[in-house]
Design brief:
The protein is of the alpha/beta class. It has ten helices and ten strands. The longest helix has 18 residues. It is globular. The relative contact order is 0.18. It binds adenosine-5'-triphosphate (ATP). Adenosine-5'-triphosphate binds next to helix 1. Belongs to the ABC transporter superfamily. Keywords: Amino-acid transport, ATP-binding, Nucleotide-binding, Transport. This is ABC transporter ATP-binding protein.
């Protein structure tokens, strides 16, 4: 069954569009890597799907059409977005950041339960619950950003460059945690990454974005093994 379906997405920043009619399909429980070099349009695509950037085209979540809805409504319907740079509020504690993830919920008990669930899954956060965002390491911030998105209990998670600026060991740990999370919960993920090798090691499928269009859509193992495609598009 389809979790996220994007058809004919056109978006940009004035002038020529960055995305020129992009189609993306993500099945329920699938982890799809959205690859492409610097400036390929990965962030633009995620922002357009979330409604942070005006876009033409159709976005469907399950059987609900999201086109035209404000971001908040898209989140209510089950879309979560962890932006590039993580968006952790550095002046707030881990606990306060996590609670922000459920700000739109109107039941305090439900929010507390959702936060507690994240502490169980992400033990290092439980140990740091009173620490401020600015006191966390890069890896801890990424973990917090991920956990905060999960507090909303999304159906589909859009994750923008989680490996950016992190040491290779930390990247492995974050991506491994993500894969385990998906295996255990059936969460659907669209993972934008410049680190193609890392993303393909945990994804089911890989899409390559270039010059505003999807130029390859293959199972992750096939893409990772295809020397021609790798050299042409992925730089490894
Ligand atoms: P990166 O991995 O470097 O984040 P990306 O694939 O996410 O790259 P985008 O950030 O979506 O790429 O950028 C796509 C294009 O849009 C680039 O040419 C970029 O310069 C341009 N762009 C991005 N943000 C803006 C903006 N706020 N205003 C104008 N142009 C922008």
């Amino acid at each position: 069954m389809t979790a996220l379906d994007v058809r004919g997405l056109v978006a940009g920043y004035g002038g020529d569009p960055v995305l020129d009619g992009v189609d993306v399909h993500v099945g329920d429980g699938e982890v799809v890597a959205l690859l492409g070099g610097n400036g390929a349009g990965k962030t633009t695509l995620l922002r357009a799907v979330t409604g942070l950037l005006p876009a033409a085209g159709r976005v469907t979540l399950g059987d609900e059409v999201l086109t035209g809805l404000p971001t908040e409504e898209r989140v209510r319907r089950g879309l979560a977005h962890v932006p590039e740079g993580r968006g952790v509020v550095t002046e707030l504690t881990v606990d306060e950041n996590l609670r922000l993830g459920g700000l739109w919920r109107h039941d305090a008990a439900g929010l507390t339960a959702a936060v507690a669930e994240q502490y169980e899954r992400f033990e290092p956060l439980a140990r740091r619950r009173s620490a401020f965002g600015h006191q966390l390491s890069g890896g801890e911030r990424q973990m917090l950003a991920l956990a905060r998105a999960l507090v909303a209990r999304p159906r589909v998670l859009l994750l923008d460059e989680p490996s950016l600026g992190l040491a290779p060991q930390v990247v492995l740990s974050i991506l491994g945690t993500l894969r385990t999370l998906c295996d255990e919960t059936g969460l659907t993920v669209l993972l934008a990454e410049q680190n193609a090798a890392g993303a393909l090691s945990v994804a089911d499928r890989g899409l390559v974005l270039q010059l505003g269009a999807v130029v390859a859509d293959r199972p992750a193992l096939v893409l990772a093994d295809d020397t021609t495609l790798r050299h042409a598009y992925l730089g490894f």
